[in-house]
Amino acid sequence: xxxxxxxxxxxxxxxxxxxxxxxxxxxxxxxxxxxxxxxxxxxxxxxxxxxxxxxxxxxxxxxxxxxxxxxxxxxxxxxxxxxxxxxxxxxxxxxxxxxxxxxxxxxxxxxxxxx
Length: 115
Known about the structure:
elongated, 0% strand, 115 residues, 2 domains
């Protein structure tokens, strides 16, 4: 840093949004020293402001969510549920000739159901 001041590592989110800054989008006044890593602490980058919820609470909620999702996934693998499907229906006597039927014989009667 040399003779340049060592400023605290704070993002622009932590500065007062209602103050009349010279540059509103950067929350910066003219003549004010800029952080050495200024481009890393812009408002669309890292937010170093403290979180409103403690980390152990967030971790606990995440682990509860992850455990419940894994439990539901396991139950879905054990007890799968599929939509009921009827047999495939083909036109023209169930495509009797195209599926290798004998052209000299009469094809069996096929009942087409309407769903």
